[in-house]
Structures are given as C-alpha cells and as structure tokens.
Specification:
With 338 residues, the protein is of the alpha/beta class. 43% of the residues lie in helices and 17% in strands. The two termini are 18 Å apart. Bound molecules: pyridoxal-5'-phosphate (PLP).
C-alpha cells in the first residue's frame, strides 16, 4: 500500500464530495451568477464574521490578490523569511504587486509584535512605505506551528497604529483552529484579509477563499480577473468547498493525532536529529548519519512511503484526509525496521 505523506494537497475527493459536485447548480461566476459559488462565498464570510469573500482557484492567487490590493508599487511588505508568500510564490510580490519585502527571522515561522514594530520604515522619502504585514498560520516551514491569539492581537495593534494592513495566509488555518480550540470569528476580527485553502487539509481538488470587507473584496474581484482567475461555471468546484467546510474541519484532529504518532516513533531513532514540535499535521525532522535526507526518502519509498527532503538536512511528512490508521501502522513499522 502506498502512503503518500508528501503533502496534504495529494488528497482525492471522496464519494460524498463528488456527489455534491455532480449535483451543483451552476452559472457564470464572472457575472456573479453561479449560485453555488455565491453560497460558498457567503458561507465563508459568515463563518469568519466578515462582510464578503471571493472564491479563487489557488491559495497562491488569494495571497497575491490580497498583497496587490493592500499595497502600491514600491511599498514594502513585512513577512517571515520562510513564509510561503516570500519563498514559494515565484517572486509574486515583486511580479504582481511591484512591492518588495522586509524579511523577519521568526521562531518556526512566527514573528512578534516587537519585530514587526522595528521593521516599519520611518516616513522618509528614501525609504519604501511599509504598508502590509503578512502572517502565516499554521506556518508550513515552521512544521505546522501555530500563533497564539494574544501575539496576533499585539501585531494587529502595531499595524493599526502604523496604518498598515494585516493579511493572514491561512492555507492551514483550520488546523490551527482545531488544535487550539479557536474560532474563525476571532480570526475575522484580527485580520484585514484572510486566505484559506480548500485544497489542503480540507480535501478539495482545487480552491481557496479570500475573506475581508465589501470594499476589499470588490477590489479583489477586479484583481482576480486581471490575474486570469475569473472562472465561469465554478460551482462544481465550489460545491466541493462547501462540502469540505461543512464536513471536513472537525476531523483534522485525527490528522494531528496521526502526526504525533509518527513523530513519537521517529524520536526514538538515532538517525533523527532535531524534530520540530508537532502542533498540527506537519512533521519536520533533521536527518543524521548514516543517512542523508535524500537517502532516507529513498529508503521510505522502498516501503511504499512517500515523503520529501525539504532541505539538505530535513525531511517533511504531512498527514491528511487520505491517511488512515492502517497506513500509520505501516509507517511506524517501517520506521522501526530502519
Ligand atoms: C502556507 C501556504 N500558503 C499558500 C499556499 C499556496 O496554495 P496553492 O498551492 O493552492 O497555491 C501553500 C501551498 O502549499 C501553503 O503551504
């Protein structure tokens, strides 16, 4: 049996999700006439206690639309040095928004209010205008680490005082909410905009939602069209999103349990060095001799287990909807036999 732990993006829609998709009522969403997309957007906005939301094909597009909306060319965006918006969106901040970044050295992907405050440029013609702070929760390269709400609220105060917007890359926000018993409404109050992904832990084939106030989402709709993301009968996909928001959030707790079970076994092994604390569904660990990460990935592959070497020293494993108890046993047996 193949156990694919490379990412939580590898899931396939199950029978109930496919059924919801097949029975979706659709229309032309660029005309804002797709009833299922409209329902999904209203559902997500209400969930977060916000006025509006827009359905996008990918998390990258949601983030990039938000960054474009919140900045002017030449502005500076504060983000953590391992953040997805900086590392993995193809230089989109420069390409799409003509803005530049100021990188902060965080703790497993998370930054503090003091770091943000120190990074704001003074009102000086020589300096770029600092207009936006982007946070990521959970932090992918931080091993699925989560922010404490008190820390986010402190960052929000710094942003409000400096007249800066605060955006959340919440690709895996529901993992954080489930792990820490927090509510989407609270997050809705803390951020100017939030992007959530439907195509990761929630198990949809595609999709992301950007949430904010009416004025912001109106502008986002214009930018989504400019980026080529205006979709037509997208309701078939939006139906998967609605299904996921209604059925696949609570169960994320199981993915977290599975991740902790794998981590506990790894910890016993001499070839495993620093293993980042497992807070949600991501396991990142350092590989020690006799293996290199590439060699260990190949070894796991011989046992039918797929994972990724994410740096010259580290491997990442991610648990998700398509991983069951039997597969976890297979992973544990494999680790024990190495
Ligand atoms: C933290 C984070 N943000 C954004 C994205 C982008 O999502 P997508 O692959 O839908 O563009 C990812 C994807 O892995 C991610 O991990």
């Amino acid at each position: 049996m193949t156990v694919d732990l490379r990412s939580d993006t590898v899931t396939r829609p199950g029978a109930s999700m496919l059924d919801a998709m097949m029975h979706a009522k659709v229309g032309d969403d660029v005309f804002e006439e797709d009833p299922t997309v409209n329902r999904l957007e209203a559902f997500a906005a209400e969930m977060f206690g916000r006025e509006a939301a827009i359905y996008c094909p990918t998390g990258t597009m949601s983030n990039q639309i938000a960054i474009k909306c919140h900045t002017q060319p030449g502005d500076e965006v504060i983000c953590e040095k391992t953040s997805h918006v900086y590392l993995y969106e193809g230089g989109g901040i420069a390409f799409n928004a003509a803005a530049q970044v100021k990188l902060l050295d965080g703790d497993r992907g998370r930054v503090t209010a003091a770091q943000v405050k120190n990074a704001i440029n003074p009102d000086d013609v020589h300096k770029p205008r600092t207009s936006l702070v982007c946070l990521e929760n959970t932090a992918n390269r931080g091993g699925g680490s989560c922010y404490h709400c008190t820390d986010i609220m402190a960052i929000k105060s710094v942003c409000t005082e400096a007249g800066m917007a605060l955006h959340l890359d919440g690709a895996r926000l529901f993992n954080a909410l489930v792990a820490n018993h927090e509510t989407p409404e609270h997050y809705g109050q803390m951020f100017d905009s939030i992007s959530i992904c439907l195509n990761k832990g929630l198990g949809c084939p595609i999709g992301s939602i950007l949430i904010g106030n009416k004025k912001f989402i109106r502008q986002a709709r214009r930018i989504r069209k400019v980026f080529g993301g205006g979709m037509r009968q997208a309701g078939f996909m939006a139906a998967a999103g609605l299904y996921a928001l209604q059925h696949n959030i609570k169960r994320l707790e199981l993915d977290h349990i599975h991740a902790r079970q794998i981590a506990m076994e790894l910890q016993q092994k001499p070839f495993v060095g620093n293993l980042l604390p497992v807070e949600t569904n991501i396991i990142i660990f350092e590989v020690l001799p006799p293996y290199t990460p590439k060699e260990l990935v190949a070894k796991f592959y011989e046992y039918g287990i797929k994972c990724i070497a994410i740096s010259p020293t580290q491997i990442r494993m991610v648990t998700h909807l398509d991983i069951n108890e039997q597969m976890i046993k297979q992973v544990i047996n494999c680790i024990n036999s190495l």
